[in-house]
Each structure stands twice: as structure tokens, then as C-alpha cells.
Amino acid sequence: MKAMVVRELGGGWVEEELQIADPIGQEVLVELKASGLCGSDHMEMSNEVQYPPPAVLGHEIAGVVSAVGPNVTEFAVGDHVAACLVQYCGKCEQCLDGEPGLCRSPQLTLRPEGEAPRLTDANGDAVTQGMALGGFAQQSLVHENMLVKLPNDMPFAQAAVLGCGVITGTGAVLNAAKVKPGEDVVIIGAGGVGLNVVSGAVLASAGKIISVDLNAESLEAAKSFGATHTVNSSETDPVEAIKELTGGYGVRTVFDVVGIGVTARQGYDMLDAGGTLYQIGMGSGTDTLDTVPMQNAFNRKAVQGVFMGSGVPKRDMAMLVEQYQAGRLNLDDIVSGELKLTDVNKGYEMIRDPKVNRLVITDFS
Ligand code: CXF
Ligand code: ZN
């Protein structure tokens, strides 16, 4: 099959012919129809975090099942499916407690040691499958735990983006914060994930949905997704602005989708008593937030991390498909454009423009 392979860090994606193995165990072979370009894969290509080259990256996928392993129970050939990168066993105490994102044995979604690799190159050498998905290719071999069945009339591009930014943003609101109707929320950051937090707040019937960003165009996008108020933090102190919008109190729920020291501080300082700052953004990876335990105790303030929407991907993605099909979830404006598989490098240039949300490969020829 044709795949776009990272051969060396920083070297971009190169077209190659690879072999993909036949499914064993609970593996499902998916003929890809859509594969989204996410910033995490660009980071991985530039500066490997987890998946050493040679690697097939790409983790926002949807397609049609073309073969199943002997132990697959949920899927059959011809099923339309989408994937989520959360790897979970379904059996450990975290999974059984409804926290697959905290699974103790995520490696059970991979091939056991001693088995042939899922992907090999023309020399027969193993090729890494990024995020256990390897979506920049014509096919993907995936553990069934990572797949969800789609209705046949769900468009593949919109389905592909569900399993990363959409589930992360909407899940923060619905699973982590459990926002109630009428509750005011602040979302710091109106990029790809931030817009999906806005969508989650709309689904939850939040009260004021206040989007904060430095970029006026991003704030316009947030409005089009359902933000009721916007604050441009390049023009005004966002903490003051939030207090003004909320009778001087601040809000009980703030989502920081940026995750640098400055936004964490702002988010915490926007909290009303009893409020929680939900940390979603990965930021610099090294910034910190100081809080005073006694003040947290007196004012009952909390800081909570959220990862991949902190939910149950199969359940959440099925719910999001229903919301999309009922016209209540905006996925059409998340998909900014469609690409050919061989245009991955060009696509990553294009998504530097903040007006572009997700680009999705839909032509695998
Ligand atoms: C990522 C976030 C960083 C760790 C790997 C998964 N999520 C989506 O791209
Ligand atoms: Zn992603």
C-alpha cells in the first residue's frame, strides 16, 4: 500500500510502498477514506516524542473495514468506522471504572512481542505505526477497542476529526466539567481544540460562553461556533474583562486550551469561589502554576487536567455523530479543506494559517 513515511526527524513525509500485515487477534484492517492532519503529528515528525522513524503518523482516521482478525467481535467487513487514539485494554480497574484514558495496559492494543510487525518497508524492515493507527496511508491495522462504528451516511472527513480535537474539546465540557445548563464558562484559546470546547458548551446549554484569544479572527470563528462573548486578550486584561462580564465574581468553570504559564494564571484568577480550572492545552510542557493551598481550601478552587476529553471514546464518538447528524454539532467548519495523501507536506504548510482548522486527506490515490 502507499504510505507517507517519516524517514528522518524534521525531514517531512516521503511517499513509499509498504506492506501491511493481515489482521490477527482483535485487529481490524481499515481501508482509509479520511485522515486528518493534526499538529501533534507535525511535532512528532519534527521532534520525536514517542514514535521513532521510520514511522507512519496520522491518527484521525475513518474508513471501511476490509478484513477482521479471528477474535474481533464488534466489526464486520463493510462496516464504516472511525478511530480514537486512546489505547485501552477494557479490563483493568481504570477501564472498568470508566476511565479508559487512564488504562494500565494500553499496550494490549498492540501486537504481542514476537509477532511480525504490522508495517514493513520494501526491505522487510519494521516501520513504526504512530499512535497505534498510522493514518497517513491507504490502510490501517487497528485494535477493535480503538474503533467506533459509523452510520453509513456519516461523511468520512467529519467522522475522522472526531477522535482527536473534537472529543478533546467537547469531552472537557461534558465529561470533565459536566457543565450544567445556564452555567457560565470561559474558554482560553480559540484554535482547533478551543472551538470544540465552545461546541461542547453549546451542547451543554451553557449560559455565557466566553472565548478569550489574542487573535481577532479566531474570536470571530469562536462566535460562529456559538461563543456568546469574546475577549481579545491582546487589547484588554482578560481577567478584568471576565470579572466585568460576570458581576465581579468570575466563573466557576474555565478551560485553558493553551496551557502556558500566563494562560494558566489568567484562568485561575478568573475563577469564582468553588470554581475549577480545566487544563487541556499542552503549552510549553515546562511552565508551572503556583497556587496557595489555604486559598484553594477556603475558596474551594481546583485545578484539574483533562486528556482526550476524559471520557469513553466509543460512547462519546457515537454521541457526537448523533449530535452532528441532528444539526447540533458543527463539524463542517472544523474541516477546512480536503487533500490528497501525497500532499501531507503541503497540508502542514497550509495549517499554519490560523483561519485553517483541520485539513483532511480524502483522496488516497
Ligand atoms: C495528543 C496529545 C499529546 C499526546 C499524544 C496525543 N493528542 C492529539 O493529538
Ligand atoms: Zn491529534
UniProtKB/TrEMBL annotation:
Keywords: Metal-binding, NAD, Oxidoreductase, Zinc
Cofactor: Zn(2+)
Pfam families to which the protein is assigned, alphabetical: ADH_N (PF08240), ADH_zinc_N (PF00107)
Ranges of residues in domain Enoyl reductase (ER): 11-312
Alphabetized InterPro entries for the sequence: ADH-like_C, ADH-like_N, ADH_Zn_CS, ER, GroES-like_sf, NAD(P)-bd_dom_sf
Oxidoreductase as UniProt keyword: yes
SMART domains on file: PKS_ER (SM00829)
Domain of life: Bacteria
Family in the record: Belongs to the zinc-containing alcohol dehydrogenase family.
Protein name, UniProt field: Zn-dependent alcohol dehydrogenase
Organism: Yaniella flava
